[in-house]
Amino acid sequence: MSNQNQEKIIVIQNKSNALGIASFVFGLISIFIFSVIFVPLSLIFGILGIIKKQLVWSIVGIIFALIGFATSPMLLGIFGLATVAATGGN
């Protein structure tokens, strides 16, 4: 057998967890400071990470974003005002 019929196939998989890790980091930061900025960023990166199949980091980031939302007085106040406005103030 000769080596002339052999082909070399190189498969490159560009798998990166960057979006999921960014979601996790922004979610973690949102628990402690600047929730108004970091909760939406964490949710956006988490959703993009889920679309890109970076499930573990993205889901943890979304959970941390929800915790950051729950610990933010400003976001809860805005959510409460929206609820009061939607119900007509009763």
Describe the structure.
The protein is mainly alpha-helical and 90 residues long. The chain has one domain. Helix content is 70%, strand content 0%. The chain contains 4 helices and no strands. Helix 1 (18-32) packs antiparallel against helix 2 (35-51), helix 1 (18-32) packs parallel to helix 3 (55-70) and helix 2 packs antiparallel against helix 3 (55-70). The protein is elongated. The relative contact order is 0.17.
Keywords:
about 90 residues; mainly alpha; 4 helices; about 0% strand
Radius of gyration: 21 Å
Strand content: under 5%
Instruction: Name the assembly state.
Output: single chain
Give the total of domains.
1
Major sheet characteristics: none
DSSP helix fraction: over 70%
SS-based structural class? mainly alpha
Architecture blueprint of SSEs:
Elements: H1 18-32, H2 35-51, H3 55-70, H4 73-87
Helix pairs in contact: 1-2, 1-3, 2-3
Question: Care to give the gist of this entry?
Answer:
By secondary structure, the protein is mainly alpha-helical. It has helices at residues 18-32, 35-51, 55-70, 73-87. The longest helix is centred in the middle third of the chain and has 17 residues, at 35-51.
